[in-house]
Amino acid sequence: MNLIFCGTPQFAVPTLEKLVAEKFPIQLVITNPDEPRGRGHKVQPSPVKETALRHGLAVYQPAKLKTDETRNFISQYHPDAIVIVAYGHIVPQWMIDLPSQGCINLHASVLPKYRGAAPIAWALVRGEKETGVTTMKIDAGMDTGDMLLERREPIRDDDTTETLGERLSLIGADLMIETLRQLERGEIAPRRQNPDLATLAPRLKKEDGRVDWALPAEELARRVRGFIPWPGAYTSYRGKHLHIWRAEAVPAAGGSGLAPGTVTTEGGRLAVACGEGTLLVLHEVQLEGRKRLSARDFVNGARVESGETLGS
What we know:
Layout: E1 3-7, H1 13-21, E2 26-30, E3 35-37, E4 42-44, H2 47-54, E5 59-60, H3 68-75, E6 81-85, H4 93-96, E7 103-107, H5 119-125, E8 130-137, E9 147-154, H6 161-185, H7 217-226, E10 233-237, E11 240-250, E12 263-264, E13 270-273, E14 279-287, E15 293-294, H8 295-302
Parallel strand pairs: 1-2, 1-6, 2-5, 6-7
Antiparallel strand pairs: 3-4, 7-8, 8-9, 10-11, 11-14, 12-13, 13-14, 14-15
Helix pairs in contact: 1-6, 5-7
């Protein structure tokens, strides 16, 4: 089965590696153009490009798929399937129609739940106990195509988008191989999605990470985990940006009795009053322009006092 592979971030790398290891002929790897990344904003290739070049695969990096130039270039290939993993572009109809077996996408949720660009983050934020990966045939809609295979994975209490994403990327790589093998043998019966069960996982925005202390502490703790590595959960303290890296919701007997956003340092911990009388204990934070610190070191260094407020 001849393939074209489309993907960009680290999440897509295990699938590409697995395809190479399983000796699938890969005619072309399509990935995003090189971009500035890291502290020095040095222009760097995507993780998928680095992997493709290491294996001696041909790489194509169009800025857009919906141009005549891109269509003409890709259309000179005749793949049996196009494998798409976290590529980040809407696939045009001409590309959907190009391969005989269709465009096969690996999506990081159990469809039809969490259609969209950030399924892992929103599954964490919304308190799901289980998620997974689904292979599907791409159609003109947003993650609405027929499902092929799925694998489920429990969400751990300490999972972040990074840790859960790493596990799902490995599970998904194996699932993609199984999907392609079954397609080759004609063993898969595609299943239509039930639109009544669909939920959305929209692309994350920077503003999503801003902490609203009026929300219950349990939800805020999930947001801290779900928004790692980006956009992060953040608030303001003494006029500066304060990033929250680790936090935990704790019971507040009889309610905290404090206005949301109010800090308490009783018992040597850094806790913040939240909605519904709940408390969020901060374990690791980073003040703008400073390094990450344990909450205890931050309290001692900044001389945080009970009664101060965050987010004002």
